[in-house]
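Below is a filled-in request sheet from our internal design queue. Each sheet records the structural input a requester submitted and the sequence that came back. We keep these sheets so that new team members can see what a complete request looks like end to end.

REQUESTER: design group, bay 2
PRIORITY: normal
MODE: inverse folding
CHAIN LENGTH: 105
BACKBONE (tokenized):
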């Protein structure tokens, strides 16, 4: 039986660190648009699920229906989040070697 090999462990940790850095970079580079109300509200979000921009049709604001606007913003953020999950799964599925993303995003 082979014993504990500190050099091999060091190499594995270095590889894991490199993969984590690559994952973070891919998440920053991924940008999606989510929308609701036929484009009335649009959310631009990156792969880290940070909202980068919110665009609201001025006519919606003029209508004065605050509750509807809040619902549209919520729906647009959720749509963007769902699109981030899908984009990250397709981009990173192979990188994780079949480990699956269950619950990671």
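RETURNED SEQUENCE:
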């Amino acid at each position: 039986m082979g014993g504990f090999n500190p050099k091999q462990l060091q190499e594995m940790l270095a590889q894991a660190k490199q993969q984590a850095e690559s994952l973070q970079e891919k998440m920053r580079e991924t940008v999606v648009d989510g929308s609701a109300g036929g484009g009335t509200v649009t959310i631009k979000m990156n792969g880290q699920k940070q909202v980068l921009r919110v665009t609201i049709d001025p006519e919606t604001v003029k209508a004065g229906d605050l509750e509807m606007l809040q619902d549209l913003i919520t729906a647009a953020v959720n749509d963007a989040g769902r699109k981030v999950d899908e984009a990250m799964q397709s981009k990173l599925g192979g990188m994780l070697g079949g480990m699956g993303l269950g619950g990671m995003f």
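SHEET NOTES:
- Confidence is low (pLDDT under 50) at residues 98-105.
- The two ends are 39 Å apart (CA to CA).
FILED BY: M.R.
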